[in-house]
Design goal:
Structural class: mainly alpha
Shape: elongated
Number of helices: 5
Largest sheet: 2 strands, antiparallel
Distance between the termini: 42 Å
Strand content: 5-15%
Helix content: 40-55%
Radius of gyration: 20 Å
Length: 128
Amino acid sequence: GMIDAHSLVQNGKIQIEDFGGRTVAVHTEEKGWLVWQVEENDDGGPARRKIQLVKERLDALGKESLFWNWVELVQFETDQTKQGENSVGSAREDVMKRGQQLFEAHGVDFEDFWRGVGGTEDMPGMAV
């Protein structure tokens, strides 16, 4: 797609400015060219802000690897739910239980940490 878009610019059929700051372009046989403008000031909403806060807090504690282990855990449980191997409620319980074990293994008090970031609300896969 990038090669084709570059060719269109080089041939003068479109201007590079037409792509804006952040653009995703995809070509499909069925739909042709699809172009999405990504808003540069979009912060991703409450879930993204919460994830950023969690990462910043764990980084400040020197626990960057805990953050990535936690992300992997949430993604795994979410995938299990999508594949029908787990119910949403069961997946949330598993994330909370295994998350607590993971945090404790890294020497971080699970309950205190989540209270410090405003709870698990807005957290994908964790809200209970």
